[in-house]
Write a structure and sequence with these properties.
Blueprint: E1 12-19, H1 21-27, E2 32-35, E3 46-55, H2 57-60, E4 73-84, E5 101-115, E6 124-125, H3 129-138, H4 144-150
Parallel strand pairs: 1-3
Antiparallel strand pairs: 1-6, 2-5, 3-4, 4-5
Helix pairs in contact: 3-4
The protein binds zinc ion (ZN).
Zinc ion is lined by residues 84, 87, 91, 95, 102.
Region (Disordered): 155-183
InterPro entries: PUA-like_sf (IPR015947)
Biased composition (Low complexity): 155-167
């Protein structure tokens, strides 16, 4: 089984979810992602929450009707804090008791404007640098620290980067970046 690379300074992966699950993570505080497989060594890492083109019709009935459901778009960034099995679905209202694995998500930050025209992929996938930069630019201002990680900037300096023409990002050393990966 392929293991995610963790040698990058700021590893980030992406996960494609059917709607409305992606929007539920972004907006409704969905804190469990139900999967048939564990996130393996990527616990603690940041994920881009990507909404695929598919729809879970049954789940649609459990979310507000006016929930916006972008497709083919990154809608949020979140952190995988762990995963467990055998809880019988009692860990969260979002947990599916028939699911093998419950991935624990936290610190979700919604993108005010989703990053669109992004193709979904299987498993935990590696977002390329252009996508990382697009998501960084779409993050809200209070997530500047996350944005700097997506741009692979050292947290002490932003001056050397030629990319990211749109805004000056000043990484914060505050709790604004609770999702910072430690490696
Ligand atoms: Zn559980």
């Amino acid at each position: 089984m392929r293991k995610p690379t963790v040698s990058e300074p700021y590893p980030v992966r992406a996960l494609t979810l059917w709607q409305p699950h992606a929007s539920a993570v972004a907006v409704l505080g969905k804190d469990i992602e139900n999967r048939g497989w564990p996130p393996s060594s990527f616990s603690g890492g940041l994920i881009l929450v990507h909404a695929g083109l598919d729809t879970d019709q049954a789940a649609l009935r459990q979310v507000p009707r006016d929930l916006e459901l972008p497709r083919g778009a990154v809608v949020a960034i979140a952190r995988i804090t762990g995963a467990h099995t055998d809880c019988d679905g009692r860990c969260s209202p979002w947990a599916d008791r028939d699911s093998t694995w419950h991935w624990e998500l936290s610190d979700a930050v919604q993108l005010p404007t989703p990053v669109t025209e992004v193709k979904g992929r299987q498993r935990l996938w590696v977002p390329d640098d252009p996508l990382r930069r697009r998501v960084a630019a779409a993050l809200p201002q209070n997530a500047a620290c996350l944005a700097s990680h997506l741009r692979k900037e050292p947290s002490a300096s932003t001056a050397a980067l030629p990319a990211a023409p749109e805004t000056v990002i000043r990484p914060a050393r505050s709790s604004a970046c609770p999702s910072t990966p430690t490696k």
